[in-house]
User: What shape does this take?
Amino acid sequence: MNHLFGKSIWSRPLILAVALCTASPGEAGTGASMSEVPEDYSYARALAPPGYWDYFLGDLTNTVAIEFATAEGGDWGLVKYCAIVTSQTYGTGDMLLYIPLSPERNIVEGSAPRFAIHSPPVIGIKATFTVG
Assistant: This one.
C-alpha cells in the first residue's frame, strides 16, 4: 500500500516463479516458510517471469503455459495452493501472492502439472490446473 500511495518505492521483481503448496501459505508466508511441496522427486518451481503475465479487466493471468517437471521417483502429494514468488530457487524469495486451487490435485509419480494459458486468474476466479 505504501508503494501505491507514494510512501515508498518498490522495484519490479526480475524473476517470478510459481510454487506448488500443500496448505495455505498464509499472509505472512515467504519463500522459505510456505508449505511448498517437498524438494523431492524432481519437484522444482516453474519459472514465470513478468512477461508471462497480463492484467485485463481486473484479472491477472498468464499468457504462456506454466509447466512443472514430471514427478519422478515418488509422489508430490495433494497440492492445494500455488504461490508466486521472487525466486526460482527452492526455499528462497519473497511470496507475492498465493491462490487456492480448484480442484486440488494429488500429484503422483509420472504426473506433469501445468497451468494452461489464462490460468490461474489471480483476481476473480479460483485457479485450475491439469495433471498430465
